[in-house]
Structures are given as C-alpha cells and as structure tokens.
Amino acid sequence: MLKIAIYGKGGIGKSTTAANLSAALSEAGLKVCQIGCDPKNDSTRLLLGHICKQTVLDTVRDKEEVLPEDIVHFGYRGIKCVEAGGPEPGVGCAGRGIIVALEKLRELDVIGEEDVLLYDVLGDVVCGGFAVPIREGYASDIYIVSSGELMSLYAANNIAKGIKRFAQRGNVRLGGIIGNGRNTPNEKQLLEEFAQRLHTRLIAFIPRDIVVNKAENNRQTVLQYAPESAQAQVYRDLSQAILHNEELSIPMPMSFEDLEKLVADYGH
Predict the structure, then answer these.
(1) Residues 38 and 95: beta-carbon distance below 8 Å
(2) Which one is catalytic: 40, 161, 188, 214?
(3) 188 is an active site residue
(4) CA 86, 89, 95: angle at the middle one, nearest 5?
(5) Is 14 among the catalytic positions?
(6) Which of 3, 14, 104, 164 is catalytic?
(7) Which own/partner pairs from 94-97 qualify as long-range (CB within 8 Å, at least 24 positions apart)?
(8) Helix, strand, coil shares, percent, the chain, to 5
(9) Is 124 marked active-site?
(10) Closest to 145 (Cα-Cα) out of 175, 116, 102
(11) Burial class (CB in 10 A: 0-12, 13-18, 19+), 88
C-alpha cells in the first residue's frame, strides 16, 4: 500500500490537489482512500459532492458504539472518504482531534484493502497532532503543496524541518514539492530551485486555471467536471509521477534568511 500525506499552508489549494490526485489515481484503476485531517472537514467535498457531515470525531462524541459505516463514506468512482473532524471553533485542540480519529480508524480496522491511502493534513507540523500521520507511521511518502509566495514557501520549509526530524528515526521521506501556481514572477523556476535547495524536486507544477474554480463551484474534481481539459491531464500526470517516484529523500531545510533572499532574487 502506498501511504501518502499531503501538507501545505492553509489556503494553498492542498485539499483541491488531494481530491484531484485521488480521482486520478482511481482513474488509473487503484483503490483509493482519502482521509481529511482538517477540522473544517472539507477535504473530501469534491469527491462526495458535499461537505461530509459525519466526521469521526463527531461520531465518537455522539455515539457509544461507532461502526465503520458511520465514518466511512464513498465518493466519486467509489473512492473511500473519511473526515477526522475537529472541535467547535475556540474549544479544544484540533491536533488532538486527529489523534483520536486516526486511533479510531485503526481500532475499527476499516483501512487495509486500498492500494493508496492519502492523508490531507492542515497547515504545517508545529502542532504535534498535525504531525501524527508522519510521526506514527500512518504515512511514509510526504508531498508539500506550495506556491511561489514567500509565506507559502516559509510553511513548506517548516514542514520540511518536521519531515527531517521524523525521518531520522523512521521511514518517512519527502517525495517532492507540488507547485500550485499563483502567477507570481518566475514562479516555476523559483519552485524548482527551492525544491533543489531542500534536496528534493518539483514533482509537478499545476498552472492556475479557471476550470478549477468552476469545478469547485459545482462540487466536483476537475477530472469529473472537465475530464478532457488540459488541467485534468496535469493531475493525471501528477498521479503517475507519484506512483513511480523513486527519488524520495530526507530534506535539508533552508534558513529563513536564505529563503527570503531566494524569493527576492526571483521576484524581479
């Protein structure tokens, strides 16, 4: 089983990328399960066609006995969808919610028949809860979604620090940077050099395209909404690159000063 975790700064398009990647992997004939580790529980929205209302954490709170069918849902092309959920805003720790949710999934033994397990994880790994997928061995291949914007790269660099820490005592490795275009100056070239500095590679660059917004407005992945589009092929190419990726590495994070200079050099 291929165990993937997708990380990235909030709002960078991580969940959109994850859902389209899951759809592309399913198209390729693989059994896929996507687990959303975000208290907003919107990771699987494009696969289900709606916001998942039965998260693991809500179900654990509301029912004495939790059954697999209470927390496992099926979306586009039969993709298995799970949302960890989280506490009400301002109440409790979202990271702790991820720990409880993943422990419940393991206890119920609802995962195991899949070819690909994909975790969509909020933000960076400063919070211990958000680090659970890589710290506890749930995922081994980590991909970071980033644009060419400074704060997106800053978050990506922080995530690389976490991966390096856990890689030193486990099998977790960085598979690459997934560039999600925001039309910043020299963006692809900047991301290529940033990846190289981290001792990894830019495994894909996803150009900004209005078809992504149209698909999201229709609660669909691009592969479902516009299967013949160039953007759909970008996600298919990404899925194949990940499936055949043999260049996983332990990252070498940059200092913030070097990162600032790198962005400035490409910002003209």
Answers:
(1) no
(2) 40
(3) no
(4) 40
(5) yes
(6) 14
(7) 94/38, 94/39, 94/122, 94/127, 94/129, 94/130, 95/127, 95/128, 95/129, 95/130, 95/132, 96/129, 97/39, 97/57, 97/129
(8) 45, 15, 40
(9) yes
(10) 175
(11) exposed
Q: How many CA atoms lie less than 13 Å away from 41 in the CB half-sphere?
A: 24
Select which of 3, 9, 80, 164 is catalytic.
9
**pLDDT of 90:** 61
- Which residue type occupies 24? A
Tokens of 51: 């916001």
In 3D, which of 97, 177, 102 has the Cα closest to residue 134? 102
SS3 205: strand
- Token pair listed for 112: 């195991």
| pLDDT (0 to 100) of residue 94 | 61
pLDDT digits (tens, 9 = 90+) for 59-90: 988 888 899 999 999 999 999 999 988 766 66
SS3 of 58, please?
helix
Q: Which residue numbers in the chain have pLDDT < 70?
A: 87-96, 124-130, 268
pLDDT of residue 113: 85
Burial grade of 14 (CB within 10 A; 0-12, 13-18, 19 or more) = buried
Q: What is the pTM of this model?
A: 0.94
Class of residue 107 by CB neighbours under 10 A (exposed 0-12, middle 13-18, buried 19+): exposed
Catalytic, out of 38, 58, 124, 141: 124
| Residue in the structure block whose two tokens are 């925001």 | 182
Clarify whether 3 is annotated catalytic. Answer: no
Q: Position 34: which residue type?
A: Q
